Automatic annotation (TrEMBL):
Keywords noted in UniProt: Signal
A Pfam family matched in the record: CarbopepD_reg_2
Matching Gene3D superfamilies: Carboxypeptidase-like, regulatory domain
Domain of life of the native organism: Bacteria
InterPro entries: CarboxyPept-like_regulatory (IPR008969)
Keyword NAD appears in the UniProt entry: no
Cleaved signal peptide residues: 1-20
Protein name: CarboxypepD_reg-like domain-containing protein
PROSITE patterns: PROKAR_LIPOPROTEIN (PS51257)
Amino acid sequence: MKYQYLILSALLFLACTVNAQTTVKGIVVESGKNNKLGDVFVRDNQNRQMTLTDSKGNFSIRTETGHTLVFSSPGYVSDTLYVTDFTNKKIELVAQTIALRQVNISAKREAFDAHKEYPEVYTRAKVYPLSPTSWFSKEAKDARRLKKYFKHEEEERHVDEVFTMNYVQSIIPLRGQELENFMTLYRPSYAFIKNNNGPSLAVYINDSYKKYQALPADKRTLPDLKE
């Protein structure tokens, strides 16, 4: 009995060790400011594992040495990590300007379809009345978070396709940083874009420009992100 107990203990220890050694944990922050970034999409290009950072920027993902992890979030330049060990990681994402983001979006837009790329997320996100696991397991909860993330990203990309820098500057005289500030401050919602046509958007931009002109100079710039 004692011998069997020792074998069982050794197997459990080995299983825990293997699991610990194939999981990378860490935190994602904004480069230069150290702001913790929540809802950053993290994926392993080789084993198709994926996750989102929590509200404090923490992440945990199953991976292996030799794999590449990709970190992406709207408004930031994507970063990659080549896994060589399983120590805790600190990933710093660089904030990008609207102009740079639009260039990146136009290059990537066609390639991403969450339903085709990650059908398993939508399968795991389903809730079955007689399956407690589908309600309460971490895998199911993570899948539902990812599903919401994909939906939000789809909507934001649609806004980016319509509310473009070229279109906005064809209506109002702002350029450069002022134009970027204006587009960030008065970015329309997905619901507005979905329910309004081109002329309505043009009216919205003109009305927003009047509001922008009425703002004090210090209110026309973007506030720093908080911790």
